[in-house]
Structure formats: structure tokens, C-alpha cells
Amino acid sequence: MAAGSAQGPPGRGSSADGPAHGLPHEGWVEDRALGEARSGPEQPHVSPPLARRLREAGLPWSPANGDRFVIPDRELDEHVFLVSPMSVEVRESPSGLLLTFNGAVEWALDAIVVGEAVWLPSEGQARDRLGTAFAGLEARDDGHRCTVATGAGRACFEATEPADAYALALLHLLESRHH
Question: Which secondary structure element, helix H or strand E, spans residue 162, and what is its range?
Fold first, then answer.
């Protein structure tokens, strides 16, 4: 097993793209009610540092109702936002798809380009993006191990949380496509 990057969550690692999920949605709100971001009922999500690495590796995202995201590098890194109708409209502009925040005076945000946001895939979304490469998830004493099929056989990726184990495997698959 090769070591995972120190930039991401604790995890170790030893190319597939799932289908794009969702369509642009009408609104986004900050999820203040939850201590942790969740997509769907109580579903854990990929950690923000690892989600940022997935975005940098080219993981596509089409915002959908219920998706969580963060806005890095704007003093909003700790705030998790939730795709939800009524608070932000998604609009086309010459600079790309914009997220136009309605009633977000407290954040001094009018709009951002979708590419500035970092999607936090839920555990299920990360697993789905592994597609047919996904071979299994094993609970272990020290966390979880995700196994994927690669062109060279099988590779295993371990992390404390299942969502991050899936994300490490997905990151490996995305980076493998670029080499």
C-alpha cells in the first residue's frame, strides 16, 4: 500500500468516473443546524481537505438539492453550505455558472462561480462515483478499508471514516487517469 497524502485526512492507500449527480439547483443555504455536514438523512460526507483534493484532481460536480459545500479562501472555510431552494439562484453568466446568494448579507456574498465552491460528497455519492471499480468496503478496528479494481489489479485505501476511504480510492482513480 502506498501512503496517502499528509494534506488529507488520516488514511493510507495501496479509473473510474461514476455518473454526474444532479442538476444545477435553485438555492443554497448555510447549514447551521448540523455540527457536521450531511447529504440526505444523517449521511456522513467527505472531509473538506480531501474534498478539495478531489476537486483539484478533476472530480466534476453538478450542484443538486441536498449537496453540501464549502467556500475556501474567503474566511468561510469552516462554514458548510447546503444546496436548498429559496436562498441562492444558479445563473449562467459570461464567466460561467454563478451561485447567486439571496439574503446572505451576513456573508457579504452576492455571487460566486460554482468552481470556487468545494463540494463535500456524501458517503453514498463518493461510493457511487467509484462506479464499477468499487470492489468493497471493510470495517476494521482502526477504521475502514475501501478496495477498488484498477488496471493493475486491486488497490486498498484506509481511513477512519468510510466516506474518506471512498474518497481516497476515488482520488487515486482520478489521478491515475492523468498519468
Answer: helix 162-177
